[in-house]
Amino acid sequence: MTTEKPPIIEVRHLTVSYGTRPALLDVSVSIEPDQLVGVIGPNGSGKSTLIKVILGFIRPDVGEVFIAGQDVQKAKGRVAYVPQRGAVDWDFPITVREVALMGRYQQIPWHRSPRKEDRDAALEALEMVRMSDFADRQIGQLSGGQQQRVFLARALAQGADILLLDEPFAGVDAATERAILEVLERAKAAGKTLVVVHHDLTTAAEYFDKLILIKQRLYAYGPPRAVLNEELLSQVYEGRLRIFADLMAKEGA
Amino acid sequence: MEFLLQAFWAPLTETYFQKAMIGGCLVAIVAGVVGCLVVLRRMAFLGDALSHAMIAGVAGGYLVMKLLFGIEAHAFGMLLGSLLAAVLTVALIGLVSRISRIKEDTAIGIMYTGVFALGVVVVSIFRSYIHIDLMHFILGDILGVADTDLWVGAVVSALVLTILILFFRHFQLATFDPVMAASIGLPVLLLDYALTTCVSLVVVSAVSMVGVILVVGLLITPAATAYLLCDRLDRMMALAALFGVTSVIGGLYLCVWLDSAGGGAVMLFCTLQFLVVLVVAPRYGLLVRWLRLRRLVPQQVVEDVLTTILRHEGDTLLTVIRQYVQHPVHLSKALRQMEQDGLISASGGAYRLTEAGTKEARQVLRAHRLWESYLESIGTPQEALHSTAHRMEHMRAGGTVDYLDEKLGQPARDPHGHQIPPRQENDKQT
User: Fold this and answer.
1) What is the pLDDT of residues B79-109, one digit of tens each?
2) CATH number of the domain that residue B324 is part of
3) Which residue has the higher pLDDT, B146 or A100?
4) Same domain, yes or no: B194 and B64
5) In this structure, are B64 and B207 located in the same domain?
6) SS3 letters for B62-108?
7) What ipTM, to 2 d.p.?
8) Fewer C-beta neighbours within 10 Å, C or N terminus of chain A?
């Protein structure tokens, strides 16, 4: 399925340091479009630094990031970000529809109100995550998975081709996880590229087309079968092998 | 000498001064101790609320005692009234913030102004019955402490201190980690109410001395001052009590010498005391922070000096070093520090590397040259090679240099044809 398309995200020789300590060292990776990509690695391995560089928040010490062939600093707005659930005030007086409309704010100049096309775009995005029935609910009245989907809709309404998600599966139950995953799949089918920071190795193989395994350096990028091998994982997670043994057994089965 | 004796001793012989000091110290001690919990729980605003809400209670207590028993200004009645008003306010705040989406700080703001307003209205309606001077209530009068105030202060202090000492661990845990406290069966809600009742008691007994507005200061400022000085709750409480006492004593002398309002002088002294500690505190003070930043010699400067001397092979003059170091501001400090650390030695205005310094310098140089080779391999333009490598050479933690070495196939020479120093086993890479 990855036939010779030009990469939509291209990271070249990325080095980012905090003082004398490298957060990312010589990371190069080309992500092809229309994929669901998982970023895995232990705590403090530079996963969120990588996301922030792709968003253009952090300027690297060495190296470049290109979004569809364009330097990341000039591609603001082409990459949309879905925050972690904990970072939101759920009592804020705002409806689902309004949150989705926020995705359009970048395109609306200060001197005019949102037009019909903006409202339509917002509703369309809600449609896509199957939340249009809840459009007039206040965001606190939704379940965890629904909340996550609303923020995904906001990112979709932005019109960005690339969505970066920071741990969307953190602290949700299995059914919700399914529902979110289904939305991610739909977004992918609509031609989006999704890069998802993920913690759970046991589900990584099942959820993603490709995995990025990092710990400061890039250890592997490729299909899950290739990335989730025992030797690589024990190198990165420093020999907490029991879990992986189980994982391998499951993979083999 | 004579003058000093006069200034310090004379007020002590006056009865009003003695009473003010005893009453003030009693209240300040207990306020400081309770204040620690108030500060740590971020409830400072609640103290303010309680002191304002009290006025309704005082008026209510006054009115009830007068109308039912015909007793004028019954101290115990007013005390009980203000305590009731305080607890009622706390309960209302809890109710509103729990059953509605209104957040607690807003609930406090609504409820205490409401109860305060009720008090003001009642006092003004019944002004022919109630002889309460609102201004006295708002500003307090520490120099006019009555014997009943002293008794109230003594009983409150004894009671609150006893509770806090007996249940110290309970309050400590419920403040630090309420969920864990509940999980081991501590009555967290009860402890919350006990604490707010203690705060109410303290506030009620302190208002007659420093007034409604300043009482919060007496509660939180000594505690905040102590917070800057220690890392343990028990010591913080002891220190807060001490600062409360010094505030009262210092403030009283201030008020006698300047002939000013008593409550104001106490709180002014208390605030000044806080500001002084804020500046000079040994660990969390501003002065120490500033000094620490000043004393810090950037590792970059040290490494720049090392490689500069290494490249010049032997004695290197200060003027030469200055040319090659990126941030020459810290240079003289860095040189002094490096001499102390035994990395370089100075003679006649020139510097040379010691054995340890040479070793260290060669590692930095190795990093620099490997970075240059790496940057060339990824297509960095020639003219940017040196300057970028110069920035990157300081990043050596986490096996960075070895990674580059391995990736490049352990090259012997850098792009400029210089030899790359070999790896040393005792290199301080982590």
Assistant:
1) 788 888 888 888 888 888 888 888 888 998 9
2) 1.10.10.10
3) A100
4) yes
5) yes
6) HHHHHHHHCCCCCHHHHHHHHHHHHHHHHHHHHHHHHHCCCCHHHHH
7) 0.76
8) C
Q: Is B253 a domain residue?
A: no
Under 8 Å CB pairs connecting chains A and B tally to 40
Q: Are residues B312 and B213 in the same domain?
A: no
pTM of the model: 0.70
Q: How far is A106 from chain B (nearest CA, A)?
A: 31
Query: Looking at the structure, do residues B114 and B205 belong to the same domain, yes or no?
Result: yes
Q: Output the pLDDT for position A253.
A: 44
If one counts the domains in chain B, the total is: 2
Q: Is residue A39 pLDDT above 90, yes or no? A: yes
Position B287 in a domain? no
Please report residues of A whose CB lies closer than 8 A to that of B400: 22, 25
Name the residue among B392, B403, B404 with its Cβ closest to that of A61. Answer: B392
DSSP string, B352-419: EE-HHHHHHHHHHHHHHHHHHHHHHHTT--HHHHHHHHHHHTT--GGGHHHHHHHHTT--SB-TTSPB
Angle between helices B355-377 and B382-392 (to 10 degrees): 140
Q: What confidence tens digit (pLDDT) does each residue in B186-202 have? A: 898 899 889 988 998 88
Q: How many residues in total does chain A contain?
A: 253
Q: Are residues B52 and B147 in the same domain?
A: yes
CB contact under 8 A, A22 and B380: no
Instruction: Give the domain range for residue B209.
Output: 22-217
Residues belonging to chain A with any Cβ–Cβ distance to chain B shorter than 8 Å: 12-13, 15, 17, 19-22, 25-26, 61-63, 91, 140, 216-217
- Asked whether residue B161 is domain-assigned, the answer is yes
